[in-house]
Every structure is written in C-alpha cells, then in structure tokens.
Amino acid sequence: MVAASAGFASRHALSQCRTEGRSDRRRSDDYIVDFHETECVGRAAFFCGTGGCDLLILVALRGGALRKVFDDRVREYEILSGRGASDIRFVLRGSYCGGHGNPSCEKTHRITSEPFKFTQPDR
Fold first, then answer.
1. By the 8 A CB rule, do 50 and 60 touch?
2. Is-contact 41 9, C-beta < 8 A?
3. Which residues pair with 40 in a beta bridge?
4. 80: closest CA among 107, 102, 51?
5. Domain layout of the chain by residue ranges
6. Residue 38 CB-density burial (10 A; 0-12 exposed, 13-18 middle, 19+ buried)
7. Contacts of 85 (CB under 8 A, 6+ apart)
8. Dihedral Cα 64, 67, 73, 78, nearest 10 deg
C-alpha cells in the first residue's frame, strides 16, 4: 500500500510482487520501507538495480500526518544508536563519493522531518 501511494508502481505491477522485506519503525510513528526482499514476476529489477534497492523513509508529523523525507536507492543502511533524532548510515553507489559504481560509498545523515537527497558530485 505504501508503495502504491508513493507512486512507485501501478496496482497491476504490485499485484505481481511479493515481499519478505522489512519495514522498520524508527520511533513510535516513523517508518523505513525497504524493498530489498521484494520480488516481482517478470520484473526482477523493478525495485532494485546496481545502485541498490528502493528505500523510503516516512517521518510522523504533529497531528499524525506522515512526510516522505527520503526516497532513493541504497545498497544497505544501518540505524545508528543514540538518543533523539536517529542517524542512519547509508551505503550508496560509489559515484556519490566521486568514484564509480564500485566500491560503495558510505554517508551518514541525521533523520528529521526535513526531506533530503544525496547528490553525486560534478565530474
């Protein structure tokens, strides 16, 4: 449901998919939707590619609304321990650190209610 509402795919395409992935809750109402274990019939790379798999982070706002703060492909991620806002370590394509696809590039970002996106440096 989250994937369809976020504009990832049509209902027909999602009906051909199954997932054993994870949906982590960062705090009481925040979500990380990880498509690493999602498989679609006839579309092996629908949610994943050489840059990783789709990852969506939704943060709860006052009043109960959810805000999408991250929506991109990552190879891996790790929620780092700590109090308050969470820091997450993202493993991305090497091009995000000025290299090429391999080796991977690691970046850490503090998750707040502000949307963010990693950008690749100009070559």
1. no
2. no
3. 17
4. 107
5. 2-110
6. buried
7. 110, 111, 112
8. -50
Q: What is the pLDDT of residues 24-58, one digit of tens each?
A: 544 457 888 888 888 777 776 788 888 899 999 99
Give the distance, in angstroms, between the CA of residue 78 and the centroid of all CA atoms in the same chain.
11
**Rounded distance between C-alpha atoms, residue 50 and residue 72, angstroms:** 13
Contact call for residues 36 and 23 (beta carbons, < 8 A): no
- This prediction's pTM: 0.73
For residues 114 and 99, give the distance between their C-alpha atoms in angstroms, rounded to a whole number: 27
Count of residues in the chain: 123
Asked if residue 12 lies in contact with residue 35, where contact means CB atoms within 8 angstroms, the answer is no
Rounded-to-integer distance, Cα 54 and Cα 73, Å: 4
What is the rounded distance in angstroms from the CA atom of residue 81 to the CA atom of residue 93?
24
Identity of residue 66: L
CA atoms of 88 and 102, how far apart (whole Å): 21
119: amino acid identity, one letter: T
